Structures are given as C-alpha cells and as structure tokens.
Amino acid sequence: MSLPEALKPISWLSGRWSTKDGHGMYPNLPSFRFHDELEFLCIGQPMFNFTSMSKHPENQTPMHQERGFLRIKPGTNELALVVSHNFGLTSLEEGHCCEETKEIVLETVSVARMSFAKAPAVKKFKRIIKLLSPQTLQCELFMETDTTPLSEHLKAIYTKVED
C-alpha cells in the first residue's frame, strides 16, 4: 500500500524495527537492558499506527507496551503522537520532524494517569527518533516524574525487520 501524501516527510519510519540491546537508566533506578519491537503501520489513513513492545532480554517476559497514533499536520513538519502505556498512562506528545536529517523530536503537552497508577507520577516525556541509515533507527526517551527532573531513560538502536 502506498503512503498518503501527508506521511511522505516521515515515510522512512514505515515498517517494523527491532533491537536486541536497548539500554535503560534513570537517576533512582539500576540500569537495565531490554529487547524491543517498534512498528509504524499505515492502514490508509494519513497517520501511522504505533506499537512498542519491550521484553526482558534473558527470560523474554513482557516489560512495557505502548500503543498509539503518530499524525503529521498535512503540509507541515508538525507532528502529534498519542500514546497509551500499559502502566496506566496516556500521553500526548507534539513536536516536529526534519526531512533533511530524518529526525523527529516530540515533547509531552499533556499526561493523563489512572487513579491507581504506581508512584512516582510521570510528568513529561521527550522522545527523539533519528534515522541513522536506511535500515537503522535510534530512539531516545527522556522522562520527568514528580520526584526526578527530565533525565535520559531509554536509548536503543533498531534494525529494520520489514517494510
């Protein structure tokens, strides 16, 4: 299926991506590793359906999941990512893409949290996605909670699995 014209500036995201060596860190947590699969799938609408599913590298048990939609404002480089996280959070991130450098930068504009979500409360995300080569994607996630300032949390290099 060909992509809608609106998605052309971020067409390089399309497909499934996998990492075997993601790294997690945070000021109040021990560092950790993870395996992750990302998918940016267009079903004909001018947006990507987005999924991220992380697993523990040794025992392959599920760690974290995200599901959402990445939308571009037609005719611009403005983006919005709506994400539901399996730990009881929904975030709206907005930002921009640079077609020349193949980079996306998104920051939280709102967060909703279920009443019984585990503390500390997440206040903000900053997400940077950059195409390093046609088959290689780098993703970085920064996170702020009500007890920790915005800090690097996740970093991974992904390889394209399929278009």
Q: Could you explain how this protein is built, in words?
A:
The protein is mainly beta and 163 residues long. The chain contains no helices and ten strands. The chain has strands at residues 15-26, 29-41, 47-55, 62-72, 78-85, 89-98, 103-113, 122-133, 136-145, 151-162. Strands 1-2-3-4-5-6-7-8-9-10 form a ten-stranded antiparallel barrel. A hairpin with a 2-residue loop joins strand 1 and strand 2 (29-41). It is globular. The termini are close together. The model has no long low-confidence stretch (mean pLDDT 95).
* Helix count, DSSP H or I runs of 4 or more residues: 0
Shape: globular
Roughly what is the average pLDDT, rounded to an integer? 95
How many E strands?
10
Determine the fraction of residues in helical runs and give it as a percent range: under 10%
Strand residues, percent = over 45%
Parts with pLDDT < 50 across at least 5 consecutive residues: none
- The end-to-end span amounts to 11 Å
Based on CA atoms alone, the radius of gyration comes out at: 15 Å
Structure classification? mainly beta
Largest sheet: 10 strands, antiparallel, barrel
Give the strand order, joined by hyphens, for the main sheet: 1-2-3-4-5-6-7-8-9-10
Please trace the helix and strand order, writing H or E for each element.
Answer: EEEEEEEEEE
Catalytic activity: peroxynitrite = nitrate
Protein name: THAP4-like heme-binding domain-containing protein
Pfam families: THAP4_heme-bd (PF08768)
Domain THAP4-like heme-binding: 7-160
